[in-house]
Amino acid sequence: MSPSTSEPAHNGLLATLPGPVRRQVLARCEQVEIATAAVLCEPGDRIRHVFFPIDSFISLITPSAGGAASLEIRLVGDEGAMGLSLMLGVNVAPFRGLVQGAGQAWRMAAADFIGEIDESPALRLKLSRYMYVTMVQLAQTVACTRFHVVEARLARWLLMTRDRAHADQFRVTHESLAYMLGVRRVGITRAASSLQRRSLIRYSRGKLRILDGRGLESAACGCYTADKKTYSRVMGSSARHAPT
Prior knowledge:
The protein is an alpha+beta fold. The chain has two domains: 12-122, Jelly Rolls; 145-229, Arc Repressor Mutant, subunit A (Orthogonal Bundle). The protein is built from nine helices and ten strands. It has helices spanning 12-15, 19-27, 110-119, 121-147, 150-165, 174-181, 185-197, 213-219, 223-235; strands spanning 29-34, 39-41, 49-53, 57-63, 70-76, 96-101, 103-109, 169-171, 201-204, 207-210. The protein has a four-stranded antiparallel sheet. A hairpin with a 6-residue loop joins strand 4 (57-63) and strand 5. Helix 5 (150-165) crosses helix 7, helix 5 (150-165) packs antiparallel against helix 8 (213-219) and helix 6 crosses helix 7 (185-197). The chain is globular, with a radius of gyration of 18 Å.
């Protein structure tokens, strides 16, 4: 699709930029469609683009040594961006970028992104703040994975997905959930069944619906709320929303 210079506040991170800066960034972007299960990058790949999701969302996944298992360490939706390690002078992808939710995204070539960072202190400051949020949330995810039970982690993941999908219903399988959370499928089945018995979710044939959002938040570990607070505090009240 052609680059756009309109005023779409579709990406919450870009929406926090001053108007002239946002328009300049969008002038160097193209709006693209990304499909579910598409792999945008693998660890070690050269970063060719920065993605600012609009209504799509992307899992950042790190494989274990030997590649026998994997773990999702972050879910990027319209609150953020993927590929920002270019700001640090690193042009190699550290994680696998797997599209979890299909939709639109703004895509900027790596060279154009570096040029904008060099020319715009306002953009550099905002993205530096977002990278700080990312580091704090990554640490939170490490603690969550180590100390919290599968049911609470699953509830957190479902809430994170709801925030990025902007919908209470989405498609997901037990296999993909096990892959994302780094646990056996039987553990996901037990956790999902428990949430369903409590009438918090309904799951059938790959379709999941959140029935009670407040109840699911109570079932989730405190990491969900903590991450939202971190985003709001650091990114400022002008942020359109603050998913984890």
